[in-house]
Design brief:
Elements (H helix, E strand, L loop, with lengths): L3 E4 L6 E7 L52 H23 L11 H16 L5 H27 L2 H23 L20 H8 L6 H39 L1
Helix pairs in contact: 1-4, 1-6, 2-3, 3-4, 3-5, 4-6
Length: about 250
């Protein structure tokens, strides 16, 4: 039995009763099953990937690469511009020397620093270790949580990929802090180095007996951030390619 629809995906005409998707819209005459958009079934079964003519519904990792069912040409152009800008900026952020905190001079660090400090306050009720670790944890958890919300609530996988890019930059931003713990050279907010005042990662790595390995952990953090940034931008690019195909198909109808 074909899928049914109550509202035309093109003109918005609402029918008094469900119509089969292979029945033309009474108002504009388009065939919904050719429109390339997922339709809500009469049973209200949730749809996690958009049905496109000639394609079966997909699940799993492929579902994360599905674009929004419908987007305007202007919004698509804005997303392409954002992707190009972030891709170009990524070369600078990934290439920043994590051994001397070069990334701390970037605009992204000014965004991440208040989030980091807020994390210390949020985790205060959970003891000293989590209070100190909370700054770094919240710096990563906030953008990651927003990315999950974009997928689960909005089904906006492109925005989720961009926020995962933000998460990757948070990792890059933490790498100099971790690297610095064994031989502190970075100037903290109070105008001192870690030898003369508080330094999150000196405390954290001393607590777990890893202070001598701080350069290695800093390098690993930088590497993970770099890989995640590339994967996030690659995922966003694949979504844009699919969205371009959708827009081209809709213009041809």
């Amino acid at each position: 039995m074909p899928d049914s629809y109550m509202q035309c995906p093109k003109c918005g005409h609402k029918s008094a009763q469900p119509l089969p998707s292979d029945t033309p819209c009474p108002a504009c005459g388009i065939y919904p099953f050719k429109w390339g958009k997922a339709f809500k079934r009469v049973s209200n079964t949730p749809v996690w990937a958009d049905d496109v003519e000639g394609e079966e519904r997909v699940w799993g990792i492929q579902c994360l690469l599905q674009p929004l069912p419908e987007i305007s040409s202007m919004s698509f152009g804005g997303r392409v511009f954002a992707w190009i800008f972030l891709s170009y900026w990524s070369f600078s952020l990934i290439g920043a020397d994590y051994r001397d905190g070069e990334i701390f001079g970037s605009f992204m660090h000014n965004i991440l620093l208040p989030i980091h400090e807020a994390g210390h306050v949020l985790f205060m009720p959970f003891g000293e270790f989590l209070t100190i670790f909370g700054g770094s944890l919240f710096q990563l958890a906030l953008p990651f949580g927003i990315a999950v919300a974009f997928v689960v609530k909005n089904r906006d996988n492109f925005s989720a990929a961009i926020v995962m890019w933000w998460t990757s930059i948070s990792l890059l931003d933490l790498s100099p802090y971790i690297y610095d713990a064994r031989h502190p050279q970075l100037i903290m907010l109070g105008g001192h180095t870690g030898e003369d005042g508080p330094h999150d990662w000196i405390y954290l790595l001393n607590t777990i007996g890893q202070i001598q390995n701080s350069p290695q952990w800093g390098s690993i953090c930088h590497g993970l951030g770099s890989v995640l940034a590339v994967l996030a931008l690659l995922g966003a690019a694949l979504i844009l390619l699919q969205q371009h195909r959708r827009l081209k198909s809709s213009l041809e109808l």
